[in-house]
Each structure stands twice: as structure tokens, then as C-alpha cells.
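Translate structure to sequence.
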């Protein structure tokens, strides 16, 4: 119906749609500059955030672990041409940071530059993927002009708040996402060209994505199935050579990490690079729950997991409700087969990520990044579907809707990143506040801010989850003043019965704790001195 209305409008001499005008002015083959615009937006925004705030990219616990592992043992092993030592997570991101540190130096900026480059590449590869899908599938049979889809998809990705936040920190999220998106683009290019190098590039990109974050092994499955279908259509010898080349590239990149992880999982103990696989549990029933007992204590969320990840694209820190509504129109177009046949892979990509995270017992905005590119392309398809309408008012409304959605998402992106950096700065301010109250030669027991104190404080700091009763006795017998800094409400709510809670109770009920002050959610205590 939409295609008939557009053709009727042409016969009547009506005003062409935006996509038709763009197609005449800038043919699809000349869209090569488009990936640069969203890429530049992310890169400039991230660098501006660093320049204006002085944020060093380190926060929480995990980013400190990544930074010290990359610039410490991995860097030393590279200098001696040795493989990376065991680590809790896969080594893809730390390897890049270690390599860059040989040029930039052992500073947190090294990890940030890797994250920024990868984050800026995500919208670029999203544009390339959408363009590649349109090169072959832009036919009258689809009833949908594809010319506007690549740029709109890239802009939607660039405006996503969580992408900007993840681009300024020392973490692995943007590296894994950019590599997976590059792999999807390369295999789409292989479908069109039939050149073996693109299949090999796709295998290498997905292998690096998996060696950065295991979740992309799930993302790679539908593309692996698609690759097998494409190979089955070729002559036997050609298909065999293409498959062998791609398998070799993937094995060289992923094999060392995957092999050591599997060996560790089989033998038991701490498996190298597979720590998160050992602590993860999955059940479809988790999608209905919002309270979980995990290695991180008792987690209580406002929404059930399934609803959280279903609504995540509409959150202000992601697309926002305006842009997210376009996903519905795009999904409807895909299900009705009014767009590129390969668009079904986008649904498989987003669906596999959703099913995994909905069934796992954790909620984190970072995890929702793994289905960002396919959702952005579906939103762009939804916009193109509306712009293909025979009604001028619908076309105009679609343009206003898109611009409003991009503006809302951009504001949300700035607010999210600013608040995130402010929280980190507040943590450092808590370190300085504690140091002012600490007596000379004091030692500190804390939980939640241990890595922050270790990085920025002069105080000898120990994590409250590590010392047992015997170690606490040893600490107290040293004669040094001992301080305890805790979010007591969090300890009592989330960690009841766990080591940090037990250590806190032992100190409170044993030698006793004297309150020195409070800042934010944290309370500073001094451990009572024992009578001689």
C-alpha cells in the first residue's frame, strides 16, 4: 500500500519524499563519507568531556582492575613476547591498552583513548552495515527507500548516552561492541562481493569481540549460521577455501584465550579469562524476577529482568522514548518483510542479547550496549517507513519526531555522562575527606571504595571482604590507628551473612566502632583501642 501510494503521488506530480530527494542528489554509491559524521560526533563529545572535567576514566572496581592488569603484567609480558597472564575477564581490551601504553605511557588516558576510538567506531560501523544491507536489498520489492537508513542509524547510535559514558572510561565495552559490529558489516560485504577476505575479516572481528567480552559469542551465532548458508551456495572447492581461511583467522585470534578458558573450566579452580562465566547463572525464569542472590550479595531491582531489558532502549540514558518508538515501526516493517531480507539478522542479534541478559541475575545499563547497533538500524527503518508514506503530514511528523528524539537523546547523553563523572569526583572527594580525619599512620578498612583509595590515597587500605577474623586480630594488634569506612545501609541490606558484613559486625561487636563522621552514604568509624 505504501509503495502504491508513493507511485501514485509521483504520477500526480507531488513533492518527492526526503529519501527520494537524497537518492537523486547523493547516490548510494557516493555515501562513503557518511560514517564520518556520527563517528566525529562521538569522538569530539568524548574528548570534550575529558578536557572539561579532567576525568581519568577509573571508577568502581572493575576499571581499576583492567587498568592495572593491562599496564602491569600484560605490558611486561608483551615486552618479553609472552602471552597475557590469567585474568578474570578476556584479555582483548587489556591487550590493546598495553600496546598503546608502549607509546602513550602508563597512564589512565591510554585506556580512555582505546575506549574512545572504539566507541567512535561503533556508529561508523553501524552506518557501513546499514549501507551494505541497502546496496543489494534496495529494490522496489521491499517497498521501502533505504537511502536514509544508514545515516539515521548512525546518528541514533551517536546520540546514545550509555555509549558516550562507556567511551570515556577504562573498560572493555566499546571495544567488544565495535568489533562485533565490524564483523557484521564484513560478512554483509562478503554476501555482496563473494571475496574471501571479507569472510576472514568478519571471523577475525567476531573473534576479537568474543576475546573481549564473552557475550559476543552469542551475537556471532546467527552470523555464523548466515555464513554457512552463503558458503553452501558456492562451489565445493571455493566454499572450502573460504571457510578454511576464515576459521584459521578466527582460531589464531580467539584460540589462545578460549583454549585456556576451557581447560580451566574443565579442571576446576579459577579458569583464566572465564571468571564471569563461572559466576554467571542463567534461567528463563529470571526474566520474571527482580530479587537475586549472587556473588555480589542480594540484588534487589525495581523491575523484573525481562521488563528492564525490554524497556532499556526507551530509557533516557539510552535512546529515550521518542527514538525507541521508531523501533516498533521498524520491527513491524521487518516482520512484514517490507525491508531487506537480511534485516532478520538484526532481530536475531537483538533478540539473542535480550534473552541472555533477561535470564541472567544482573541489571546494568552497560549490558544493554550489546544490542545497540541492530536496534538503531531498526529505528532508522521505522523512520524510513514513515517517510515513505503517501501522506505529507506523516512525512513531516516523522522528521519532527526524529529530530526531537535525537535532541532528547543528546541531552540525556550529556546529563548521564556529567552525573557519572560527578559521582567519580565525589568518590575522590570522599578520599580527601577521610584523609583529613585520619590520624597519622592510620590504616583503613573499607568496602566499595577500596580501589579508589588504593589509587588516590596515602592510607594503607584493605578491603573489608578480604580479612578474616584472624587477619583482623593481626591488624588490630599492630598498634596502628584503624579506621572503617562503610555504606552501612548497603552492607546490612545487600551483604548480610557475607564476608564484609561479618567483618563489620565482628568489629562493631568486638572492640567497638566510634563514629567520626559521615559523607554521602558513607560513615567513617575508628576502631576502639584495646585497654593495655
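Result:
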Amino acid at each position: 500500500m505504501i509503495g502504491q501510494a508513493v507511485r501514485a503521488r509521483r504520477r500526480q506530480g507531488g513533492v518527492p519524499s526526503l529519501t527520494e530527494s537524497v537518492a537523486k542528489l547523493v547516490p548510494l554509491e557516493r555515501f562513503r563519507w557518511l560514517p564520518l559524521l556520527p563517528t566525529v560526533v562521538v569522538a569530539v563529545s568524548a574528548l570534550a568531556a575529558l578536557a572539561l572535567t579532567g576525568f581519568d576514566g577509573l571508577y568502581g572496581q572493575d576499571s581499576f582492575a583492567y587498568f592495572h592488569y593491562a599496564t602491569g603484567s600484560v605490558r611486561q609480558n608483551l615486552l618479553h613476547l609472552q602471552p597475557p597472564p590469567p585474568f578474570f575477564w578476556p584479555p582483548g581490551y587489556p591487550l590493546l591498552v598495553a600496546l598503546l601504553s608502549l607509546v602513550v605511557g602508563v597512564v589512565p588516558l591510554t585506556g580512555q583513548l582505546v575506549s574512545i576510538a572504539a566507541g567512535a567506531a561503533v556508529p561508523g560501523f553501524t552506518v557501513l552495515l546499514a549501507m551494505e544491507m541497502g546496496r543489494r536489498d534496495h529494490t522496489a520489492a521491499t517497498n521501502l527507500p533505504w537511502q536514509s537508513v544508514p545515516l539515521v542509524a548512525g546518528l541514533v547510535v551517536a546520540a546514545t548516552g550509555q555509549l558516550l559514558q562507556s567511551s570515556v572510561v577504562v573498560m572493555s565495552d566499546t571495544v567488544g561492541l565495535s568489533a562485533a559490529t565490524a564483523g557484521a558489516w564484513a560478512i554483509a560485504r562478503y554476501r555482496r562481493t563473494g571475496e574471501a577476505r571479507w569472510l576472514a575479516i568478519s571471523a577475525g572481528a567476531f573473534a576479537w569481540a568474543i576475546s573481549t567480552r564473552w557475550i559476543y559469542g552469542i551475537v556471532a551465532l546467527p552470523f555464523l549460521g548466515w555464513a554457512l548458508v552463503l558458503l553452501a551456495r558456492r562451489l565445493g572447492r571455493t566454499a572450502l577455501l573460504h571457510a578454511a581461511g576464515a576459521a584459521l583467522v578466527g582460531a589464531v585470534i580467539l584460540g589462545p584465550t578460549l583454549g585456556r578458558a576451557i581447560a580451566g573450566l574443565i579442571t576446576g579452580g579459577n579458569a583464566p579469562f572465564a571468571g564471569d562465566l563461572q559466576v554467571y547463572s542463567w534461567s528463563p525464569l529470571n526474566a520474571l524476577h527482580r530479587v537475586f542472590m549472587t556473588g555480589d550479595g542480594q540484588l534487589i531491582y525495581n523491575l523484573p529482568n525481562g521488563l528492564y531489558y525490554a524497556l532499556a532502549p526507551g530509557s533516557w540514558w539510552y535512546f529515550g522514548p521518542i527514538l525507541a518508538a521508531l523501533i516498533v515501526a521498524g520491527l513491524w516493517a521487518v516482520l512484514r518483510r517490507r525491508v531487506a531480507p537480511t534485516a532478520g539478522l538484526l532481530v536475531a542479534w537483538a533478540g539473542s542479547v535480550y534473552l541472555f541478559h533477561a535470564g541472567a541475575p544482573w541489571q546494568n545499563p552497560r549490558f544493554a550496549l550489546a544490542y545497540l547497533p541492530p536496534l538503531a538500524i531498526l529505528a532508522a527503518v521505522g523512520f524510513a517507513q514513515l517517510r515513505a508514506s503517501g501522506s505529507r503530514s506523516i512525512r513531516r511528523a516523522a522528521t519532527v519526531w526524529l529530530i526531537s528524539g535525537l535532541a532528547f537523546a543528546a541531552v540525556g547523553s550529556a546529563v548521564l555522562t556529567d552525573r557519572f563523572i560527578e559521582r567519580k569526583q565525589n568518590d575522590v572527594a570522599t578520599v580527601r575527606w577521610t584523609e583529613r580525619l585520619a590520624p597519622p599512620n592510620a590504616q583503613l578498612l573499607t568496602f566499595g571504595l577500596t580501589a579508589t583509595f588504593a589509587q588516590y590515597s596515602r592510607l594503607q587500605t584493605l578491603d573489608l571482604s578480604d580479612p578474616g577474623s584472624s587477619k583482623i586480630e593481626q591488624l588490630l594488634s599492630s598498634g596502628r590507628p584503624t579506621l572503617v569506612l562503610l555504606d552501612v545501609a548497603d552492607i546490612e541490606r545487600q551483604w548480610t551473612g557475607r564476608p564484609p558484613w561479618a567483618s563489620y559486625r565482628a568489629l562493631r561487636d568486638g572492640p567497638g566502632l566510634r563514629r567520626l563522621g559521615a559523607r554521602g552514604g558513607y560513615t567513617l568509624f575508628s576502631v576502639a583501642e584495646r585497654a593495655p
